[in-house]
């Protein structure tokens, strides 16, 4: 990798956004989403709330860190157009990142303004939470490829790689589906926490339970299905005569999937404690980013080797 100043900044923005995502999960898991009431961007009608409760501090911290993430992405966008020539893939990545950070803010605002937080159990909340998750993953993917391309990482030619390209696309789509199911499951666990493993299993097969509980069973099933597919795909990639980087990414993807599946099982056994939910989400982010970088290496359309228009180092 060639880490110019821009590349280092891009990696930093990506890491910051991952932390913001994890803190957002903490907000949801602790029921702090209504900490600022139905006010946005103000918090309980104030810029700086007086004598805030813990829930307010948690939600306000999430808003402040999200605001810094927005500023960071906007700087990334402006810098990309100043440092890289027309048609450079870094520009495309930065534009996509800016688009998804804006829609991320709008979806987050909608959750607050429409009261789809705290103890709300509506289908509308489940739908918007799913949209929020997809947007979050698209934001992370855009930031990931921006940093990747800024580090001079390029796609490589693979003979007869058409099937692998479609496999990677299917894997990315499968990860989004699994993650949406995971977001709905996490919401159901937060709103309807089981008192024991046996009770949770009984709830899952009880047709009289709330739809969020009935949907929980799909997440582990889809996780196993997509996980096995991605491990098989990683094995196929490692069997190809590719670069050491692709081999490392494919191997890392397989290991992360196994760890993630184990973490999911432990999460259920421990009755989804907050710390384990955050760990589970972090591993999901790691799997997603690794898959994105792997796809960027072997499945992207080859581009010419551009050099920065001005010094990005």
Give a brief outline of the structure.
The protein is built from 10 helices and no strands. It has 313 residues and is mostly helical. The chain is flat and about 50 Å long.
What's the overall average pLDDT, rounded?
Answer: 88
Radius of gyration: 21 Å
Number of helices: 10
- What is the total domain count? 2
Straight-line N-to-C gap: 13 Å
Order of helix and strand elements from N to C terminus: HHHHHHHHHH
Q: How much helical structure, as a percent, in the residues? A: over 70%
Strand content is under 5%
Tell me, briefly, the overall form. Answer: flat
Count of strand segments: 0
Instruction: Briefly note the structural class of the backbone.
Output: mainly alpha
Give a written overview of the molecule.
The structure is a single chain. This protein has 313 residues and is mostly helical. The chain folds into two domains: 1-153; 155-302, Four Helix Bundle (Hemerythrin (Met), subunit A). Helices cover 71% and strands 0% of the residues. It is built from ten helices and no strands. α1 (5-29) runs antiparallel to α4 and α4 crosses α5. The two termini are 13 Å apart.
